[in-house]
Amino acid sequence: MTASHERTLSVEVCTDGRAFAELAGDWERLYRACPSATPFQSHAWLHSWWLSYGSPGALRLVLVRRGGELVAAAPLMRVRRPLPALVPIGGEITDFCDVLVDEAVGVAGAAALADAMGDLARTALVDFGEVRPGGAMERVYLCWRGPRRRMRDSVCLNLPAVPMKELVGRLPVTRAGRVRRKVNQLGRLGLEWRVVGHGHDETEAALRRLLELHRLQWEGRRVSPEHLRPRFLEHLVRAAVPLARTGRAVTTEFVCEGTVVAVNIMLLSGTMAGMYMYGFHPQLRDRKVDIAAMLLHAATGHLEADEFLASGEVRTLSMLRGAEPYKYRWCPDTAVNQRFLLARRRTRPLLAAAAAGDAARRRAKKLLRKDATGPALTEGAPPAAHSG
Hints:
It contains 14 helices and 14 strands. The chain has helices at about 15-20, 25-30, 45-55, 105-120, 135-145, 165-170, 175-190, 200-215, 230-245, 280-285, 290-305, 310, 325-330, 350-375, and strands at about 1-5, 10-15, 60-65, 70-80, 85-90, 100, 125-130, 150-160, 190-195, 250-255, 260-270, 270-280, 315-320, 335-340.
């Protein structure tokens, strides 16, 4: 680690994986002090991701301390392609990326992160994507002293965290009637759900079933290949066990006639419950089970049983990234993640190149959708389904 000091705040850059592991306690305290944090910013998620996906020599954790206490952190790594950049830890399997800033230090902590990230970047770009609206990285962006650019990133669809009856009540009358019939059908089929215990063996067994059912669910169609790789299972189990013990992850099994036919994992933060991943046996599709209704019925049931809804703390039930058509049937609100490009004067050309590349990709996607569906989709309309 290296260190520098400014007023009462000290800044360190951690590049050692073992030191990252030892930060668990300090990171947990900081996580709890950052209102915008999601489980994707927890030490359990990030360190597990690093063990599965990190590259030797690439780790760059920017740590800000006050009197020895960790008050801000930016989980970064260095990449060389397609452009030399500092990017957030988490990769494609992480729906929300962000920094952590203790509310007690506010702007001062964000400014210390911005200055440290600028010094660390040198000849690289800071390319920080998938930040939720209201994320702590917004403060860092505002404190940045060099060239900068804010752009749209992935679309996320959200529902209010309310009981299932209220979710259905938000729908158009005809659609609401169909959903009620589908929910009643779950009982007639004898389909029940249960929450998996917090133990390592129970969690691992359930998540193995989830990924096997996910594979069956997508058999014969295009699926994200990463979800079928052993390292993804290893990461998910390693992260989910401590998250479950702290109430930030819930794994649910759906049972019919004594057999597990579906598994879902939900991640929870102070204000949000996120439907991260599920898998189901194709026989449910054959039996005309409405999978989304099944998952939402169980999710809202769990939140209600554990009094998350009564407390008013969990306000959003997020279907996370992706604008799949089935999600729009629930009349969700749309939120767009942000991508922040931060440069120094001498790296301004990298910022321009990254922005141009993003614009080119968006044009290409628009043309592909136009070729596939006829007229181009209008702003806000559901694009083609994500592959998993």
